[in-house]
Amino acid sequence: MIDWGSIAPGVTSAVLDPQAVNSLDQRVRRNYPATENLILIHQHELRLSRCYSRAISLEQKVPLRSVTKSVVSSLIGIALEQGKIASTEQTVAQLLPGSAACAAGAAAAKLTLHQVLSMTGGMRWQSGRSGNEPMHMRFMRSENWVDSILSNPVIGKNRFLFQYNTGLSHLLSAIISACTGMIAAQFASETLFSHLGIIDYTWPEDPQGISYGGWGLEISCIDMAKFGFLYAYDGVFNELRLLPSCWIKTSTLAHTQGYGYQWWLYDFNGVSAFSALGLGGQMITVVPDKHIVIVLTSAMAGRSRKYIELLRDHVYSLV
Q1: Is residue 86 over pLDDT 60?
Q2: In the prediction, which pLDDT does 133 show?
Q3: What is the CATH number assigned to the segment(s) 67-180?
Q4: What is the rounded CA–CA span in Å between residue 281 and residue 278?
Q5: Could you write out the three-class secondary structure of the chain?
Q6: How far apart are CA 87 and CA 104, in angstroms?
Q7: Torsion on CA atoms 295, 301, 305, 309, rounded to nearest 10
Q8: What is the pLDDT averaged over residues 37-58?
Q9: Which residues of the chain does CATH 3.40.710.10 include?
Q10: How far is it, in rounded angstroms, from Cα 250 to Cα 231?
Q11: Chain region(s) in the chain for CATH 1.20.58
Q12: Which CATH architecture describes the domain 7-58+220-318?
């Protein structure tokens, strides 16, 4: 079993091939110099822990960026299980009745929770090549982020296509606030973080006091591993079920090509894997059939998907 309170850098399990581990360390330093931390967990055991940078420790909070999206997805699953949200077929208008944009009949108000979670539905949005979203800054400059996001038009011909959209993720946080009576940070603390032992975290709020839905959460690398562990073991942590098993399956199922409900989906040499990815190399990757969790943090510029090959071919392959 893992003693979460005593995880330290420099651990190499005796079951790992020393030459393969040495090759990994050299590859990271040579080809991925911005890498900060790496944790590998397999079958309830810590197999590998590394601090490649002196700038940040395993216990220090890091900006998760879009990994936040996957945490928010888990909170939606809890709200559904508690009956605070009836179904993923409810519309945004039904879930956010207090929104001025919904009251004004915005086309985006007709999107279902399923479409918001899977980033389908045809809302006009723009994604930059480096992983930035130009329209992201537009709603951040507005007085009301939710109404600004909902004011974007919906393009009918694109209503079944995937379009990465951080605005939709912020709507999920607004839905949590509206349906539970608690902002996402508070709801997470009560239903998730307290049970995972996640005490030291930062989660900013928009002008209406809604926790950022698409980015902004900060927790440590070790706490990221706890969250991944929860998904690797079907929603159970320390013999306590925190997430419904059906939600683990549904949220990590392909609802569009390569994407679930705020999770990226991958094939690791014929085995299904899913990842929470944040800009700049923040990653929680889970291979549930093997009970593997890989956490990586980085100061890299650009998309985290550059690291997928490293994780698949040189970290996952260690076990």
Answers
A1: yes
A2: 64
A3: 1.20.58
A4: 6
A5: CCCHHHCCCCCECCCCCHHHHHHHHHHHHHHCCCEEEEEEEECCEEEEEEECCCCCCCCCEEECCCHHHHHHHHHHHHHHHCCCCCCCCCEHHHHCCCCHHHHCCCHHHHCEHHHHHHCCCCECCCCCCCCCCHHHHHHHCCCCHHHHHHCCCECHHHCCCCCCCHHHHHHHHHHHHHHHCCCHHHHHHHHHHHHHCCCCCECCECCCCCECCCCCCEEEHHHHHHHHHHHHCCCEECCEECCCHHHHHHHCCCCECCECCCCEEEEECCEEEEEEEECCCEEEEEEHHHCEEEEEEECCCCCHHHHHHHHHHHHHHHC
A6: 24
A7: -80
A8: 96
A9: 7-58+220-318
A10: 12
A11: 67-180
A12: 3-Layer(aba) Sandwich (3.40)
Q: Give the confidence band of 153 by pLDDT, cuts at 50, 70, 90.
A: very high
Name the band, by pLDDT with cuts 50, 70 and 90, for residue 128.
Answer: low
Top pLDDT among 178 and 158 is at 178
Residue 132: the pLDDT is 60
How does the average pLDDT of the chain come out, rounded?
Answer: 95
Distance from C-alpha of 227 to C-alpha of 75, rounded to nearest angstrom: 12
Q: Which two structure tokens, joined as six digits, stand for 184?
A: 């996402």
Q: Partners of 218 in the beta sheet? A: 63, 202
pLDDT above 90: residue 55: no
Per-residue tokens: 244: 């419904």
